[in-house]
Each structure stands twice: as structure tokens, then as C-alpha cells.
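Hi there, hope your week has been kind to you so far. Do you reckon you could talk me through the fold, stretch by stretch? Thanks so much in advance, here it is.
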Amino acid sequence: MSTIKLDITKDHCPMTFVKTKLQLEQLEDGDILEILLTAGEPLENVPKTCKDQGYQVLETAHVEGNIHKVVIKK
């Protein structure tokens, strides 16, 4: 099991989920993806869409300012 980090704080919807999905497709089952993203649409949409597609959202946490971390297990 490995943990991969993805910073999409400079991206906007729908690119935030596109980049997340592309990264998840490269992972093995059981791997962890830690995503840094901004509040608003990315924080609302990325975890929800991942969950809807069968991924497990392990954590959503505020990091600092407008930045949040979402941890997803494939």
C-alpha cells in the first residue's frame, strides 16, 4: 500500500476531479491518495464524486486558510 499526494489547489472545477480521477486510475487497490484542494466547489465536489464512484473517503480536514485535505482510499 502506498500513499500518493496530489495538489490541485491551483485548479478549478471540473479539472479538480479530472486530475483526481486520472491519479486514482494509476493507483492499486488499497492505495491512498491525499489531495490538497481549495474550499468551495472543489471541496464539495471531489469527495462526493469519489464516493459516488466507489472510492472510500477516509478524511476531510482543514489545513490552513482556504486549503483543505481530502484522503481517499482506492
Helices lie at 15-26, 41-52.
